[in-house]
Amino acid sequence: MNNVRNKKRANKSLPFFFKDEFKVFFVIIFVSTILLVTTFTFDKVPPILNRGIQPATFPKGLLVLIMFLTAVIYYLSFKNPWKKEKKLPKPFFLTIFSFILFIIISKTLDFFLAISVLSIFVSYNWGEKRIFYLLLVGILFPLVVFIFFEMILGLRFPPGIITNLYYY
Amino acid sequence: MMAPLFSSKLLIVLIFGTLFGLILGVLPGLGPTTGGALILPFTMTLDPLSAIVLLTSIYCAGTYGGAITAVLINTPGTPAAAATCLDGYPLAQKGEAGRALGMATVSSTVGGIFSVIVLVFFAPVLAQLAYEFGQPEYFALAIFGLTMLASIGEGSPIKNLIAGAFGILISTIGKDFMTSIDRFTYGINELSVGIGFIPVVVGLFAISEMLTQSTLLDQVFKRVALKAVKLPSLNDYKKTWKTILRSSGIGSFIGVLPAEGGTVASLIGYSEAKRFSKEPEEFGKGSIEGIAGAEAANNAATGGAMVPTLALGIPGSATTAVILTGLIIHGVRPGPDLFREQPDFLYGIFGAMLIANVLFFIFGFFGAKLFARITLVPNKILWPMIFAVSVCGTYSLSQSIIDVWIMLFFGVLGFFMRRFGFSVVPVIIGLILGELVEGTLRQSLVIFDGNWLMFLTRPIALTFFILSLIALAFPLLRSKKQKK
């Protein structure tokens, strides 16, 4: 209980723009505004064909509702500040980095290679240093999954430098 | 009822589903929702009944499986087992892990079977009522479902509403189904068909959990030794039978309401068990009634949640949303017509749920020790493997790499949502109900010639709107009462 109180106090002492409440409020309002602006670019149905409401009306209503409710939670946070979250550790950022790496490799080189690289990268950065286990999660397991999906589901994976060796 | 299940293929599917569900339930961070979403692509190789039998058996067994880790390592395998930790672990620490797991197994089985009976009798009645529903009634019902989810689901009601609205917003991406006008596609062709359910579910559950696990690497679990699961003694039965029955009723009822199913049910089941107990002071210290109350309720929610899913096509929980997707993928449209046209199919599902409850009792009773060992697999090995399956599973449904990127996006989003107290379940329910909400609203407005007030002239719709308002007011009244 004391811990929570201390955390709340810690959050209270920060300038408003550093507080989680404001960051969440700002991000939701910012993204919703962009989306709301986008809805004004949707094509309109000519009046003669229009039945009910325009295609943009429903998303517009939802976005306004989201913005209104976000303003309400921000207002309520003045009375009840959120507890301050712990700082995110290094492995979290490395895992996010591995996702970016995955997207780049799967787009430019090979889907299977991307899975292998991510698996080894994540496993290593989460503390696994034994070569056997790194090979198990990075090569053996993805290979089993690949063959399983290929044979059982008849799935064709996107072409790439390694996948092509299997297909051709 | 069981006739369609007396085929070796379906029995194998049931056994596999139950075992797989137990493994998913035991592993903290995974669970029947993520597991169901991951296995959905594999069900494409099965006929519709086998596919849904597989998903429902995973649902039943996965919900129970969470109790094993809750008792032995004080970490709920699934959110629905959180209340089980409160007494399961203290009892295990006293050297009675076998007794705690025995009670969890028996009460889960009773709760599960009770809820299947509720399902068998209640779902056809609800389906019959649904014949009276037109577009305005379905719209009002969907709104009621979302408001219930916000008010009795976990966390802040307003944050739940935002998450639900966001889920509906995602469903509007792609071509408008009435006019074929592109919405939020930004010129990306792949987005014109909309965002698939599987990338979102796998992202919000599996990938966001992977990110959560990356922040918990220094966490050390203290495991309690388990010799064998023991059946509860006669004295334990005498002490708990009323609690088990009460929690089974509570769980089934909560399950029927569109909410977070087992999670909410187990918390209410637990608190009611404490309220009615002759020894409330024992709760939190290893009360056998506490375990029975929580476990009977969370498993009873499984059958309850299937009632609106099958009768109305409105999911009662996140896992039933996956099952609903499975039904749609296999060309089965839930609703009243399903009860009239495919009774064998439905009774096959009911029977499968009944057998799954018996199977997890057997597997849990004899194999809990073995299943508990699965938690020994370190996260640094387990999660990269889950990532590989998630990626291939997500890719396989539409064979689109964009789906994999969407999955990663929702994984990161889901992590931050959970970090700041937004539940991800309303997003899933909103996504699956989105088309229904928008479609029925627009079609109703066509019927009403654009007059919104006409909704109030329909008695059933009006009732649902009033119930929605009550659902929204409920958290306010509750917090005022708590302050007093």
Secondary-structure map with pairings?
The complex is a heterodimer of chains A (168) and B (484).
Chain A (H helix, E strand, L loop, with lengths): L1 H11 L7 H20 L17 H23 L10 H19 L2 H15 L5 H22 L10 H5 L1
Helix pairs in contact in A: 2-3, 4-5, 5-6
Chain B lengths: L7 H19 L5 H8 L8 H26 L8 H49 L4 H18 L4 H15 L2 E2 L6 E2 L13 H18 L19 H23 L5 H15 L11 H25 L5 H12 L6 H6 L1 H31 L5 H20 L2 H19 L5 H23 L11 H25 L1
Antiparallel strand pairs in B: 1-2
Q: Which stretches of chain B of 5+ consecutive residues score pLDDT under 50?
A: none
Largest interface (CB < 8 Å): A-B, 66 and 58 residues
Molecular shape of chain B: globular
Largest sheet of chain B: 2 strands, antiparallel
Radius of gyration computed on alpha carbons of chain B: 22 Å
Q: Strand share of the residues of chain A? A: under 5%
- Count of DSSP-assigned helices of chain B: 17
* Total separate domains of chain A: 2
Distance between the termini of chain A: 63 Å
Low-confidence stretches of chain A: none
> Helix fraction of chain B?
over 70%
Describe this structure in a few short sentences.
The complex is a heterodimer of chains A (168) and B (484). Chain A is mostly helical and 168 residues long.
Please tell me about this protein's structure.
The complex is a heterodimer of chains A (about 170) and B (about 475). Chain A has about 170 residues and is mainly α. Chain A folds into 2 domains: about 1-80; about 90-165. Chain A has helices at about 1-10, 20-40, 55-80, 90-110, 110-125, 130-150, 165. In chain A, helix 4 (about 90-110) packs antiparallel against helix 5. Chain A is flat. Chain B is an all-alpha fold and about 475 residues long. Chain B has one domain (about 5-220, about 235-484). Chain B has helices at about 10-25, 30-40, 50-75, 80-130, 135-150, 155-170, 195-215, 235-255, 260-275, 290-310, 320-330, 335-340, 345-375, 380-400, 400-420, 425-445, 460-484, and strands at about 175, 180-185. In chain B, strands 1-2 form a two-stranded antiparallel ribbon. In chain B, a hairpin with a 6-residue loop joins strand 1 and strand 2 (about 180-185). The relative contact order of chain B is 0.19. The mean pLDDT of chain B is about 85. At the A-B interface, helix 2, helix 3, helix 4, helix 5 and helix 6 of A face helix 6, strand 2, helix 7, helix 14 and helix 15 of B.
